[in-house]
Write a structure and sequence with these properties.
The protein has a single domain, classed as Porin (Beta Barrel), CATH 2.40.160.20. 12% of the residues lie in helices and 67% in strands. Strand 4 and strand 5 form a beta hairpin.
Length: 201
């Protein structure tokens, strides 16, 4: 029994050590500009607020990736991504405002054409939280069905394992919302992340 426990501990420790040797991890935030369309219309027209103007707020982007690599001799890392983009705005002169928070959960691939440059692509399942407030109406709802992708380019600045990743990204999510309408949110912006990775030898 003691041998089985000891072998199990050694196996788990060894597996963790092997995984840690190829661990990739990054986490960070970004800011940019976003656009939202519902069935091809801007938000004001989609909610029948004709003659209104939209003032879009800066878009917040948060996310993390975790995975394994590189798969030598290729500088490629396979990752999973969890992230979200918050699109908000105010519709004048009606004093209405909206919030679309689009999530992405799915696999991705990172490629380093040169040691300090990262190219990334993620594809995945998307769900979205929508909130629309136009006094006295306040509608909030989660919508589970959707698809999203994320394309990024960044520069790794730092040491052998720990570094800062600075770059730009393009994000898009397509979700079905109320009455089978299609909500498309897209965002372009910059980001700063903490990154941990094992570099190719």
């Amino acid at each position: 029994m003691k041998r089985i426990i000891l072998i199990t501990i050694i196996f788990i420790s060894g597996s963790f050590s092997i995984f840690a040797q190829g661990l990739y991890f990054d986490i960070g935030a970004g800011i940019g500009k976003s656009w939202a369309k519902i069935d091809g219309k801007d938000v004001a027209k989609a909610f029948n607020l004709t003659g209104s103007n939209i003032k879009e707020d800066p878009t917040l982007d948060l996310g993390l990736k975790i995975g394994y690599g590189p798969f030598e001799p290729f500088p490629i890392y396979i990752v999973g991504e969890l992230g979200f983009v918050v699109t908000t705005g105010t519709i004048t002169p009606s004093d209405a405002n909206y919030n679309f928070t689009s999530f992405i959960v799915g696999p991705g691939i990172l490629f380093y054409p040169v040691p300090i440059m990262q190219l990334g692509l993620s594809l995945g399942y998307s769900f979205v939280y929508t909130n629309f407030y136009s006094p006295p109406v306040d509608k909030s709802k989660w919508h589970p069905a959707g698809f999203a992708w994320n394309i990024s380019v960044g520069l790794n600045i730092g040491g052998q394992y720990n570094s800062i990743l600075i770059g730009a990204k393009y994000f898009m999510a397509i979700n079905n919302v109320e009455n089978n309408k299609k909500l498309i949110t897209s965002m372009i912006g910059g980001f700063v992340k903490y990154s941990f990775r094992h570099k190719p030898t």
